[in-house]
Design goal:
about 170 residues; eight-stranded antiparallel beta barrel; 2 helices
C-alpha cells in the first residue's frame, strides 16, 4: 500500500511539474486586532512554489516574512509563515481567490508562534498578481506588566504584488 501511494504521488507531481513555478513578491499593510495596539504598519516579503492541479486551480507551499513596526512602548516584531497555499483563477475574468493556511513562527521573545490564515482576492496579470488580503496570526503574548500570557490576534489588511518566476 505504501509503495502504491508513493507511486501515485510521483505520478501526480510529475504530471503537474511542467506547469509549476515560483512566485516572489511583497506586501504593505495596516495592522488590525491586537496588532493595531502594538504596531503602526507592516511590510513583508512573500515566496511560494505552486503546482497547477487542474485548469484554474493551483496549490503549493508558501513562506516569507512579515515585519510589524512597533509604536509607543512596543518594539518591532515579526513572523515567518510556513503554510500550504491554494489559488483559484476564474475562467472568463482576470480575478482569483486564494488561501494560505499553516503556522507562523514568531521572531520576537514574548510572542509565541501560532496559527496562520491568509485569505486573498486579486487581479491576475500575465507575469504578476496584485492582491488584497487579510493576514491573521492567532498567538499568545506575554503581558510584562501583569506577568501573564494573553491570547492575541495579530492581523493586517495587506496590499501586495507577486511576480511569477518561470
Amino acid at each position: 500500500m505504501k509503495k502504491l501511494f508513493l507511486l501515485g504521488a510521483f505520478a501526480l507531481f510529475g504530471s503537474v511539474n511542467a506547469q509549476s513555478g515560483f512566485k516572489l513578491g511583497g506586501h504593505i499593510g495596516a495592522p488590525v486586532g491586537d496588532a493595531s495596539k502594538m504596531s503602526t504598519f507592516t511590510l513583508g516579503v512573500d515566496a511560494a512554489y505552486m503546482w497547477t492541479i487542474m485548469k484554474g486551480l493551483d496549490v503549493g507551499v508558501t513562506t516569507g516574512y512579515s515585519h510589524f513596526f512597533g509604536k509607543d512602548r512596543f518594539d518591532d516584531f515579526g513572523f515567518v509563515p510556513l503554510a500550504a497555499s491554494g489559488k483559484y483563477k476564474f475562467a472568463k475574468v482576470p480575478l482569483f481567490v486564494g488561501l494560505d493556511l499553516g503556522g507562523a513562527i514568531s521572531t520576537k521573545d514574548g510572542i509565541n508562534s501560532g496559527l496562520y490564515i491568509y485569505p486573498k482576492v486579486g487581479y491576475q496579470m500575465p507575469n504578476a498578481e496584485l492582491y488584497l488580503g487579510y493576514q491573521n496570526i492567532g498567538s499568545e503574548r506575554r503581558d510584562f506588566d501583569r506577568d501573564r500570557r494573553i491570547d492575541s490576534n495579530f492581523g493586517a489588511i495587506n496590499l501586495g504584488i507577486n511576480f511569477f518566476l518561470k
